[in-house]
Amino acid sequence: MGLWKKLFKKKTDTAASEGREAEERQGLPEDVHENQELRKAYIQASCETITEARRQNLEAKKEYEVVTSYLADIQRLDMLPPEGKKEIEELAKKIINLNEEREKMQRVPAKITIAQRMALEPYEETMTEEIRRMEETENYQQTVSSDLRQLEGEKASLNYEIEDIVEKSAMLKKLMAAVCVFIAAFLGLLFFLQEYAKRDVQIPFLLTVAFGILAAAYFFYTIRKNLYDLRVAEKMKGRAIYLLNKVKIKYVNCTNLLDYSYEKFHVSNSKELHYHWQEYMRLVEEERRFQKTNDLIDYYNQELVSKLKQKGVVDAAIWMYQPEALLDAKEMVEVRHRLNVRRQKLRQRIDFNNGQEEQARRTIHTFALKYPKYQLEVKEILAKNEIEEK
Description:
Strand content: under 5%
C-alpha cells in the first residue's frame, strides 16, 4: 500500500511528472482494480493532475493576455503621429530627468549622525543665536584663561618678592649685629689706649661714634623700608589671590556652561557646531527638494498615464516605470523582445499543461475501458473533482 501511495501521490516537479507519465505509458498496474482504496487513489491522482494543469493554465492565460496587451500597446505607440509621440516623449523626458535628480540626492551621504541631527532639530529656530552665544562664551573663556595665567604669574612674582625681602631683612639683621660688635670692640680698644697707653683717641672716638650713628640711621631706614615693602607686597599678594579666586570661579562657570552646550549638541567647539548646522540645513533643503521632486514625478506620471490613455494605450500605468523606452527606440526594442520571450514561455507552459491534462484524461479513459464495471465509480470521482467527461 505504501508503494501505491508513492505512485499516486501528487507531484509538482517536472521530473516526477515525467516519471509518472512513463509509468502510465507502460500500461496500468494489473492489480489496481482489486483494491477499492488503490483504485480511487489511482483515478484521484489523475483528477488532481487535470485540476492542477487547469489552474496553471488559467494563471498562464491571464498573464498571456496581459503580455499580449503590453505588445498591443507598443504597437499603438509605434503608430502614433509625430505630434502625439512628441507630447509623450516630452513627459517621459521630464520624468527621467527628475528620477536622475532624485537618485543624485540619494547618493550624497549625510555628514552628521542621526543623533547629532536630532540634537539640532529642536533648536532650528534659535540655532543662529545658540552658535553666537557659544562663540562669545568661548571667547570669554579665552579672556578669563589669559587673566588667570596673568594673575598666577603676578602671584608667583609677589611670592618671590616677599621671600627676597625676608631674606634681605635677615641678612641686614646679621650685618647690624656685626657692626654693633665691631663698634663696641673698637671703642673698647680706644678706651684701653687712652687709659693705659695715654694716647689721644678723641678724633678716632668721634669718628667711631659718627660711623655708629650713620650705621644706625642706615639700618633703621633700611629696616623700615623692608617692612613697608613687605606690607605692600603682602597686600598686593592678597589682592592677587582675591582676583585669582574670583577669576577661577568665572572660568569654572564658563567651562561648565560650554561643557553642557557641547554635550547637548554633540560637538567639541562652536566651529564644529557651525559645521553641523550647515550640514543640517543642507539636509533639510535636500529633503525639501526631494519631496518637491517626488511631487513633480507623481504629477508628470499622472500626466503621462492620462495622455497615454487618451492615445488608446490600455496598460498606461506600466510606462511610469520604464519611461526610457518611450524615448529610446533601442530600449523599446528590448522591451518588446522581453515581452515576446515571456509570451513564448507562457505558450510553452500552456502547451505543457494541456499535455498533462490530456495524458491524465487518457489514463482515466484507459482505466474505464479496461474495467467497465468501475465506470460509475470513475464518473463519481470525476464529478467530485468537477471534471467533465469528454
